[in-house]
Amino acid sequence: MSKVSPTAVSDRAQQLLKLLVERYIREGQPVGSRTLARGQGMDLSPATIRNVMADLEDLGLVKAPHTSAGRIPTVQGYRLFVDSLLTVKPLQPAEVRGLQAKFEQAADPQQVLVTASSLLSEISAMAGVIMIPRREQPTVRQVEFIALSGNRVLVVLVLNGNQVQNRMITTSRRYSPAELTQAANYLNHALAGKDFTKVRDALLAEMRETQESINQLMLAAIDMANRTFQGGDEGGDYVLAGQTNLMGYAEMADIDRLRQLFDAFNRKRDILHLLDQAAHAQGVQIFIGEESGYEVLDACSVVTSPYEVAGEVVGVLGVIGPTRMAYDRLIPLVDVTAKLLGAALNQNQ
Amino acid sequence: MSKVSPTAVSDRAQQLLKLLVERYIREGQPVGSRTLARGQGMDLSPATIRNVMADLEDLGLVKAPHTSAGRIPTVQGYRLFVDSLLTVKPLQPAEVRGLQAKFEQAADPQQVLVTASSLLSEISAMAGVIMIPRREQPTVRQVEFIALSGNRVLVVLVLNGNQVQNRMITTSRRYSPAELTQAANYLNHALAGKDFTKVRDALLAEMRETQESINQLMLAAIDMANRTFQGGDEGGDYVLAGQTNLMGYAEMADIDRLRQLFDAFNRKRDILHLLDQAAHAQGVQIFIGEESGYEVLDACSVVTSPYEVAGEVVGVLGVIGPTRMAYDRLIPLVDVTAKLLGAALNQNQ
DNA sequence: GTTGGCACTCATATGGTGAGAGTGCCAACC
DNA sequence: GGTTGGCACTCTCACCATATGAGTGCCAAC
After folding, report:
1. Lowest-pLDDT range, A185-199, A321-335, B266-280?
2. For residue A339, how far is the Cα from the chain centroid?
3. What is the pTM assigned to this prediction?
């Protein structure tokens, strides 16, 4: 991706590009020299504007879909626009308060995430996505066995990151409360705070030598942890909202490409990788068109921001929409939502 | 919906309708008299077939998109076809075994449901859906409090239907294990097996008079149950797979209608209502086009079957696709999957 | 450097035309 | 009376030609 240095473009040309991109984002039509001349902000004749636009085209910042159409921005054009030309439209304080109010209605962390992604998608009229990144080090904090009726036992696993998993198992015989506590204690002692993958095998080997009666419980617990962390290894998970909003955009009308995009949403992998990249950047990051590196997102832009809990980045959120999106509104939206989400999670922990 | 009695249609006409529907389902093109005459099974001249087709059109079983096109089945035509004319193509034993194998790989009930819906969508190349209907009577089977590090307590609720819910709360002070057990015992005694909504208020009133120190825990538990059952009141939930398959069909090409359909999937309500209806029927049930009563499904057919655990209907599953679907293959597929799902859940309980 | 003029290009809309598929109806046949 | 071939008719679709209009590039003049 050849990046165009702003210095290579005259001030006037930049100003023109800015007007062109703004207009194109607003109207969605290729914009021609005449239209641009009529609009205020630039007092030049169409002919002059044509000259400048030819320069911009040579630099690869705009292109014409065909000879007799106006110009539309290229990816590089959008890039220069968002990097150096954009005047962001910050959210109104009232809007921020509105968002805040919505966040306060959510009870548990999962709820907060769902709220946030819905908000992003509703306000942007595009798709909103929130990622919870992979656990750094898979640890089991605590194991508990709860006796249920019959021969059934509920296994509860508390993992790092305050996640809880449970599974019900039916055992071959009835265990006494004392046995259950003993098994839990044993596992808690063995697993406590350590990297699960490292202690697992030792634990399994050790268990082969101890009494078999308890094994069934412990095996179930270990199997559970195994499965959970295996899933976690794929790189976290995300909450998505408002995919269907994307079906309204003319630039996404190609149903086959749209389908591929939706499939990618379901597959999750590509989207997760992309969000993962954004986790290491700080502040709002923007992927325009092919910049993302994923073919399914060629016609899309993604605006992301990491969000923090207790001063540490724990995830990334963002909006996905057509490259022709209102960057000036979306950047502050994503930024503010990230901050509010972090705050909400902080309180909610 | 005027139902056409089979007796009002001559045997030959029925036979012809059958061939017509089969061919249309196969080719997707309006079928004309000439085409139908060439195909075997009916040794009549195109002219005769035209006469019969005119009768079928008068009865509202087929219609012509325009004067010089062949005929396509109407909803009533499909109805008669599936009710009286269809010869189902049962699954091969090998296929059944293949399905069974997939089911055996799934560990927990949730996994089983996901597997089943994926299977349905993959084999049908349409959307697969599995519903877990609303709890008949909201009961809390068991409550447990688990002490975590710090002032945190994990509240675990076991509900009827073997569902488990948990939430982590931070308490104002540290509780001793004895206190936790005491609180759990108290709640377990009060809630045990009873209709939650009925005991809730009495319990809350009673708690106002007992020691306050324990209340925080109990309130959290009651609040959790409240929220869960409130969600449950909406009428269960479902697992959906392969929505994107629907984007491949020409008859669903209208992106606006498709969007409405996807929105309905997310909204869940309409689809749940529909599936709910199918729960009371026994065996495979089919909703063709507008028969479903939901506008978003006008261009779709839904093939459903309830599934049973321990002899009792616990949910419904089905496939959703364009009205022009291979009913002869889908009916046995849905039927068998329902049985396998029931069996898998039985084992997995 | 800026501007008006002009020839040129190309997407889009419009209308006409012909081929092809399929119908309905009628008269003839078994 | 049911069945059939024949025939005129209808309608979609693909194709072509034409016109329109938006926009361009280039040039000469200011």
Report:
1. A185-199
2. 14
3. 0.86
